[in-house]
Design a protein that fits this description.
The structure holds two protein chains of two kinds. By secondary structure, chain A is α/β, with parallel strands linked by helices. Chain A has seven helices and nine strands; from the N terminus they run E-E-E-H-E-E-H-H-H-E-H-E-H-E-E-H. In chain A, helix 2 packs across helix 3 and helix 2 (93-103) runs parallel beside helix 4 (137-149). Chain A is globular. Chain B is mainly alpha-helical. Chain B contains eleven helices and no strands. The interface between A and B is medium-sized, with 26 and 22 residues.
Chain lengths: 249, 291
């Protein structure tokens, strides 16, 4: 957790045409994100969580307001991890991981070394020659995390990356993400539906309302130190978050 | 007692039995057809209409022998194949190139869309009179200023290549276009966020992602150009090729030669299709398994 702000969204408005009507997803929305935080964006389906991520990634344009990065070139140095179709199916795992390095024209031998090292750190060393369809869902997400991290991004944008996984694999990958985050402290924005996941992973949890999205809760659950206090906070948060879901259902 | 080295796994044995049974089944129907054909032809006894399979086989067994002063089966097959290879290659290069360009550029699609939709349903053979009028009987070496090269290239008329090109171009072009338009947005976003520029996205995302559709287009284009070729070779002005030999032999009531040509046309067509299918399977083994 860090107090230095790295991303500022000031009074932004944004939306998109879904083919039938124009949906105003954000209207006069402001948010500041700190450096090195693992920020969780939580909210009901269709509230604009993914749109927020895409705005920060530069994929969805703003209709109004300001998006400011406090570090130069941060937007270009951000990496996305999706829930589905997150690896190129025509490349094997190591070539998928090498993709970003190849674009950066990193020499072949060095590229291979870096990719191997990264695959090793996510536990996929023996699967480098496999194609994505030959791996389980959890392994594919490990590979896509490796693909995103190998280029040493300044910002990691994760759009429900563990949403399609079973509970056990999900927990394994949550642990992996925590381990990676505590090691290299990359500023991360993580979209999820799961309150448990938010509580487990987040340095900061931002709960959004339905469209046009507003911030309903902005919590830092890991600020509490003792185990008992933490547990009490977990219960309280769970109750609060559930209530928010029920109100906005 | 059987020593361990001689024992085979029961499932492997079962597989072998199935495989033998399958290859047996493969020959049953053609075998029965040939037997019925032979009996009927002998009873009918009019070889100029209905030759025996044996007389057809005799023609097929001598592929290098000159037939009706029109060249051998081999030389005519090679002439046909060469025309197809040249016409198809030109269509493959231009079809994939323009398919990539039009498929990835919305304004080009809007500009050329109506024109393409008008030209696409036009039967390639309908271009034949136009091609003869424009290119006359000019051959490939003549384009490069050589009147007679003394090689098989003298059998490749530009008009014929032009018609074959039209036959193969549209399946290749439309499949490439559709393939490009159907590329999942996630792959493009993923590449862009990994730092890919437009050129990298085209060659490292659009092209491989659309490859299954491109290869399907190439397969269709190759089959269609083979169809078109045989019909085009039957038109006046042609002096070689399987279509020419087939049509010429039918005029002389040499039905065994006609059927021998039909057999070769089928076998070559099936082989070309099989080869492209094999290529498809090898190159895009991931297709249909995206997750």
């Amino acid at each position: 957790m860090n107090n230095q702000n790295i991303i500022e969204l000031k009074n932004i408005s944004a939306g998109f045409d879904n083919g039938k009507q124009y949906l105003q997803v954000f209207d006069d929305f402001s948010l500041t994100l700190g450096k090195g935080d693992l920020n969780i964006i939580l909210g009901p389906t269709g509230c604009g969580k993914s749109t927020l991520l895409n705005i920060i990634a530069g994929i969805v344009p703003l209709q109004g307001g300001i998006l400011e990065f406090k570090e130069p070139n941060l937007q270009n140095n951000s990496r996305l991890v999706f829930q589905h179709y997150t690896l190129f199916p025509w490349l094997n795992i190591i070539k998928n991981v090498e993709f970003g390095l190849k674009i950066r024209k990193i020499e072949k031998i060095r590229r291979r070394e870096m990719a191997e090292e990264m695959l090793n750190s996510v536990g996929l060393a023996s699967f480098e020659k496999h194609f994505p369809h030959e791996l389980s869902g959890g392994m594919r997400q490990r590979a896509s995390i490796a693909q995103a991290l190998v280029t040493e991004p300044g910002l990691l944008l994760m759009d429900e990356p563990f949403g399609a996984l079973d509970d056990f694999t999900r927990m394994e990958l949550q642990d992996l993400l925590q381990k990676i985050h505590s090691k290299n402290n990359i500023t991360t924005i993580f979209i999820t539906h799961s309150i448990d996941e938010a509580i487990k992973l987040g340095d900061r949890i931002i709960l959004l309302s339905k469209q046009p999205a507003k911030i309903l809760e902005d919590i830092r659950p890991t600020e509490q130190q003792t185990a008992n206090e933490k547990e009490a906070l977990y219960s309280k948060l769970r109750q609060q978050l559930h209530q928010q879901f029920l109100i906005h259902k | 007692m059987i020593s361990p080295c001689c024992q085979t796994h029961p499932s492997r044995n079962k597989k072998r039995v199935i495989s033998v049974a399958k290859s047996g089944t493969f020959f049953i129907v053609p075998g029965v057809v040939v037997i019925i054909w032979q009996i009927t032809a002998v009873i009918f006894n009019q070889p100029w209409i209905f030759p025996t399979p044996l007389s057809v086989l005799t023609v097929l067994m001598h592929p290098l022998q000159d037939i009706l002063a029109s060249g051998s089966l081999i030389s005519n097959t090679l002439a046909s194949l060469l025309r197809v290879v040249i016409g198809f290659s030109v269509a493959a290069v231009t079809g994939v190139f323009f398919g990539l360009l039009v498929g990835s550029t919305a304004w080009l699609r809007a500009l050329f869309g109506p024109m393409i939709e008008i030209l696409r349903p036009l039967c390639p053979i309908a271009w034949m009179p136009f091609a003869i009028a424009v290119f006359k009987m000019r051959t490939l070496p003549q384009i490069f200023g050589v009147d007679y090269s003394g090689t098989i290239l003298d059998e490749v008329q530009i008009g014929m290549v032009f018609v074959l090109f039209w036959g193969a171009f549209f399946p290749i072009f439309t499949n490439t276009c559709d393939g490009i338009m159907g590329v999942r947005k996630n792959y493009i976003t993923l590449a862009e966020t990994l730092g890919a520029d437009k050129k990298t996205v085209v060659f490292r995302v659009f092209l491989p992602a659309a490859l299954p559709m491109i290869l399907t287009g190439l397969r269709l284009g190759l089959s269609l150009s083979w169809f078109v070729l045989i019909a085009a070779e039957m038109l006046p002005g042609t002096t070689s090729g399987l279509g020419y030999l087939l049509f010429y032999a039918s005029g002389l009531a040499e039905m065994n030669v006609v059927i021998a040509c039909m057999v070769i046309i089928s076998v070559v067509g099936a082989s070309l299709n099989g080869l492209t299918l094999l290529l498809l399977k090898k190159m895009v083994s991931w297709h249909g398994k995206e997750v």
